[in-house]
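User: quick one, fold this
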Amino acid sequence: MAKVMTRMSSRWRVAIVDDHMPSRADVRAAVLAAGGEVAGEASRSADALAMVNSARPDVAIFAVGLPDGDGVSIAAAVTSTTGCPVVLFTSHTRDELVARAQAGGVMAYLLKPLRPAELAPTLDLAVARFAETRQLRQTLEERKIIERAKGRIMERLNLTEDDAFRRLRRAAMNSRRPMVEIARALLVSESVTEDLPRI
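Assistant:
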């Protein structure tokens, strides 16, 4: 059964998924001692996704071995669907496990038995890495959109790449909107191409 706590001001809000009650209690105590807040807890993978969706934590700590499933698999699902970074809590460091965790988007590890002094830097690092990764993905996606729009302008108006880019930039400046918004609009509506200002 999952528990969700109410929101308070804290260093980070942490969700804990572990079926071993003493381990969960150790993590809870370390989070509180480090100035964090426990946003929710679950003991089964079946409850983890719903709990994280409901609690909206800044970071989640998942045990690898859960009675009804694999913590790495559910961690990957949580990371991809909720936008919450996940730290694995495990006594295993096998190469196969590390590879699966990396592929699933896991941001860091905490080793059992928990050393409370390691918790805060591990969570800080996981949150920072996740934010950086998300920003890089967003920047890459925005660049792809701008490149596609630039290609459409080049094709329709027979312009060079530089001229097409200048048109996009000028349209963004004139409308005081980010260039990616102008590029998206152009890709959605062919009529935007005709409305782009000439340089």
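User: anything notable?
Assistant: The longest strand covers residues 37-42.
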